[in-house]
Design brief:
Blueprint (H helix, E strand, L loop, with lengths): L2 H10 L21 E3 L11 E5 L2 E5 L8 E7 L5 E8 L5 H4 L9 E8 L2 E8 L3 E7 L10 E5 L3 E8 L5 E7 L1 H4 L4 E7 L11 E5 L11 E5 L2 E8 L6 E7 L7 E6 L10 E8 L2 E9 L5 E9 L6 E2 L8 E3 L43 E4 L3 E5 L1 E2 L18 E3 L5 E12 L5 E7 L3 E9 L2 E9 L8 E9 L3 E2 L8 E12 L2 E7 L6 E8 L9 E8 L8 E10 L1
Parallel strand pairs: 25-36
Antiparallel strand pairs: 1-22, 2-3, 3-4, 4-5, 6-7, 7-8, 8-9, 10-11, 11-12, 12-13, 14-15, 15-16, 16-17, 18-19, 19-20, 20-21, 23-24, 24-37, 26-36, 27-33, 27-37, 28-29, 28-36, 29-30, 30-31, 32-33, 33-34, 34-35
Length: about 550
């Protein structure tokens, strides 16, 4: 194993004995045997779920974000915990070492087969890939390219009763020049390579345009493909069945918005829990990304009708938890948000915008995470230079419509124009940072409207702050600033404040309206950058970040 691989493992794979985390800002479990949607108020888009040993395992699209393929675990489909990631690096490395917004991992499928977990996904530029592991939390294999080529997306395998393996997938019009069709091909029994040519088994045409995201199942002798149609924001859910994996398939719409306020409820996973069937799907929340909702499934008509006769529920009784009876209480837990950085790792909620490089940042003995300033102007020839091209942003998903994130930081700078702080990142972004100028620090708000369209960044100076410490060494001395940075989010509007003592906070800058990224929701976290570096790097030491009401 290389030094790089060892470092990756120590950075992103902490002990699998994880403390249960309870969010202060969003918990779908009402504590009375019911839940409210979404069960994950975070951008776990294109979710898929499988069951193994009475527990449920979820993965979702991660696109260019690394570590990728997040894996979450639940006992009851309502309370979820992040337990790891199945992908530590995207290939080709020379491509994904830089931000490739909207590329990479599209719509994965997770399955449990003969004692192992398998995850398949489509990279629309390079083909269909697979990883596997006996432990969903760690030790995932190196990716295997099962079907090379461009245009293929949203794959899902089905191991049949006779051991044969079939794969269904959709197609991206942006690469293939066509979409709305689903194809099935046979794979080798171990699921590592194709042994049959693809066949079109469904064409959505005009009636079910944008048919994609298929999931493959078998039930009572029928082959079932469940897929969305109609597009992300306004789509609906289809179910189709056939006596052969190659069709022909008859289809039925089984969920749609109807009279509810839940737009585009579709694309996800059918699972069985206790004596009931359930469907997890996404719902587009604009800047918050595609959040995950849970609906009951009724098979009494021979078709999987979801929610309330096809319309999604906002509140319903919980599924049966492992080892308990229906409607019983299970331990409330939620995906991690806050991080004290005390145990030599970072929390599993964090991701970079490109493949990790150890010069971006490392944990520090004593309990903090250090982010070195990155030479932003060296990364790309595009003009103007913005954070859209920065690979070293340390970010996590918002997990509630309203929350406050407060961080205690120390910024160390060794030359002018090194800066660091908090950022809300998307196609538009805004950051509250401190930037060195001479022997002082400037508190600034950096904002870019249309970063994905190469629009320039504006910088507004809000205050001048004096260093709290200085180096006395003659070689490459630094000046330091200790402060608290705060971001308050209320229904998509972000406001900043800061404090020098952690008690009295002063508002800083203008309110900023969050905007989603390329196929992902907006994300928040830390930035540490510089321009035209001539001396040693500066750094941002993050002592902790706490997400509260």
């Amino acid at each position: 194993m290389s030094v790089r691989q060892l470092f990756l493992l120590t950075l992103v794979v902490p002990s699998v004995v994880l403390a249960q985390y309870r969010s202060q800002v969003w918990s779908p479990d009402r504590g009375d045997g019911t839940y409210v949607n979404p069960v994950l108020y975070a951008d776990y888009s294109d979710p898929d779920v499988c069951e193994a040993d009475g527990r449920f395992y979820l993965t979702a699209s991660s696109f260019n974000c690394i570590p990728g393929l997040p894996v979450l675990r639940s006992d009851d489909l309502v309370n979820w915990q992040i337990i790891g990631h199945a992908l530590q690096e995207l290939e080709p490395k020379e491509i994904f070492d830089r931000p490739q917004h909207g590329k990479g991992v599209w719509a994965p499928a997770i399955r449990y087969h003969r004692g192992e977990f398998y995850i398949y996904w489509g990279d629309p530029d390079y083909g269909i890939f697979m990883v596997h592991s006996a432990d969903a939390a760690r030790n995932w294999s190196k990716p295997v390219c099962v079907v090379p080529g461009s245009g293929m997306i949203d794959p899902c395998p089905l191991w049949d009763d006779d051991g044969r393996c079939y794969l269904v997938n959709g197609w991206a019009n942006s690469r293939a020049g066509f979409n709305s069709v689903l194809t099935v091909r046979e794979l080798s029994a171990d699921g590592t390579r194709q042994i049959g040519l693809p066949r079109i088994v469904f064409d959505g045409g005009q009636v079910n345009h944008t048919s994609e995201g298929p999931k493959f199942y078998k039930r009572d002798g029928w082959y079932w493909i469940m897929c969305p149609a109609g597009g992300v924001e306004t789509g609906w859910q289809l179910a189709m069945r056939s006596r052969s994996p190659y069709g022909p398939y008859e289809w039925k719409r089984v969920m749609w918005q109807g009279k509810t306020t839940m737009n585009g409820p579709h694309q996800g996973a059918w699972v069985h829990a206790g004596n009931e069937d359930w469907f997890l799907h996404f719902n587009d929340k604009a800047a918050y990304g595609r959040v995950v909702c849970l609906q009951p499934v009724d098979w009494s008509s021979g078709w999987p009708i979801m929610g309330n006769n096809g319309e999604p529920y906002t509140r319903y009784h919980k599924p049966q938890a492992r080892g308990n009876t229906a409607n019983s209480k299970s331990q409330i837990q939620n995906p991690q948000e806050s991080d004290e950085f005390n145990d030599g790792t970072m929390g599993l909620q964090w991701q970079w915008h490109a493949n990790y490089n150890q010069t971006y940042g490392m944990p520090v003995a004593g309990g903090c995470y250090r982010l070195y300033t990155y030479d932003l102007d060296k990364q790309t020839s595009e003009s103007p230079v913005t954070l859209w091209n920065a690979p070293n942003l340390l970010l996590q998903k918002p997990t509630a419509p309203r929350f406050t994130a407060t961080a205690k930081v120390r910024f160390a700078s060794k030359e002018d124009h090194q800066y660091g702080g908090l950022v809300m990142m998307g196609r538009d972004y805004s950051a509250l940072v401190v930037c060195r100028q001479g022997d002082t620090f400037l508190l600034q708000q950096h904002t870019c409207m249309g970063a994905d369209e190469q629009q320039p960044e504006s910088q507004t100076t809000l205050a001048t702050l004096q260093p709290t410490a200085r180096d006395t060494i003659p070689y490459s001395p630094a000046i330091y600033l200790d402060l608290y940075l705060r971001m308050t989010v209320n229904d998509g509007v972000c406001r900043y404040s800061y404090s020098l003592d952690g008690k009295r906070y002063k508002e800083a800058g203008d309110a900023f309206t969050m905007r989603q990224g390329k196929w992902i929701g907006a994300k928040f976290g830390f930035v540490s950058e510089c321009m035209n570096r001539k001396a040693s790097r500066g750094w941002l030491d993050v002592d902790w970040i706490r997400v509260t009401k």
